[in-house]
Specification:
Blueprint (H helix, E strand, L loop, with lengths): L1 H19 L13 E15 L9 E18 L3 E15 L5 H11 L3 E7 L4 E6 L7 H8 L15 E7 L3 H4 L5 E12 L5 E12 L6 E14 L4 E15 L10 E14 L3
Antiparallel strand pairs: 1-2, 1-11, 2-3, 3-4, 4-5, 6-7, 7-8, 8-9, 9-10, 10-11
Length: 273
């Protein structure tokens, strides 16, 4: 019995030591790999007029599903160049007045071919179309879905790091005005051998100091799984809760409007050969 207990203690100590050994978290896909991804996002936006309670609240629900392929064209220690092709896009909205706009956006997304320059820390450094022209921020956000999350130094299980990221544009979150996210990330665990890393995050949404006429606040939580052997995120889930108040200048005579937004986004890398 003592021998068995001793063996258990040795194994436990060995595994604990492996968990404490710092590892490098980074995007490092292999040239020639094709990564099939599925992005699902639902956005609920509630709009109210605080100064006029008689006006009923309006709630809009928008869903987006993107199936795409990402082909790794080049890889350097500090960045990678990938080609992302959107095979299909499904966009729906409960706003009957936006039907034409929704259909147009769906057609614009389907078939898109974008060249992304991705930093090893997950930063989307640039996005261009197949002709080499820079792509709009809104289009880049819709397709890239890649947060800047990784520290530049090796990290041990339990360690945290903080990053600041721009808030996605108003079109994708229903927000009015600009802001940024101050998020704290944590390396929660590693699989045996360190082939996969599990990362969580929690952050606050803060307004841009130069923004006028808009009040903005909110939170974001998320979880990610990084395949370190593959050099790519295999799954991520983010939940965003955002409140914004648009206060027009008094001279306009327009009433203030309050927006409460809830976003749930899931990204998965599918195993297709």
């Amino acid at each position: 019995m003592r021998v068995v207990a001793g063996v258990v203690l040795v194994l436990t100590a060995h595994l604990a030591g492996a968990q404490e050994t710092p590892v490098l978290l980074r995007l490092s896909p292999r040239v020639g790999d094709t990564l099939h991804t599925r992005l699902e996002q639902q956005t609920d936006v509630s709009v109210t007029t605080p100064t006029n309670p008689a006006v009923p609240a309006r709630t809009l629900v928008t869903t987006l599903t993107l199936l795409s392929r990402t082909i790794v064209r080049a890889a350097q220690p500090w960045s990678s160049t990938v080609l992302t092709i959107v095979d299909s896009a499904a966009l729906t909205s409960t706003d009957a007045h936006a039907a034409a706009m929704t259909a147009q956006a769906q057609r614009a997304l389907t078939g898109q071919q974008l060249v992304l320059q991705l930093g090893a820390d997950g930063t989307v450094e640039s996005v261009r179309d197949k002709k080499g022209a820079l792509v709009s921020r809104a289009m880049a956000e819709a397709i890239a879905a890649m947060p800047a999350v990784f520290p530049r130094r090796p990290t041990a299980v339990g360690q945290q790091w903080t990053r600041e990221m721009p808030l996605p544009s108003g079109g994708s979150l229903g927000a009015r005005g600009s802001g940024y996210v101050r998020a704290t990330f944590r390396l929660d665990s590693l699989t045996r051998g360190g082939s996969s890393a599990f990362i969580s995050m929690r952050g606050d949404i803060l307004p841009d100091s130069t923004q006028q006429g808009v009040e903005l606040s909110g939170t974001i939580t998320g979880a990610m799984q990084l395949d370190r052997a593959r050099g790519w995120l295999t799954e991520s889930l983010f939940v965003i809760n955002l409140k914004s108040m648009l206060v027009p200048p008094p001279a306009t005579g327009l009433a203030a409007m309050k927006f409460v937004t809830h976003v749930k986004q899931r990204l998965r890398t599918l195993d297709k050969r």
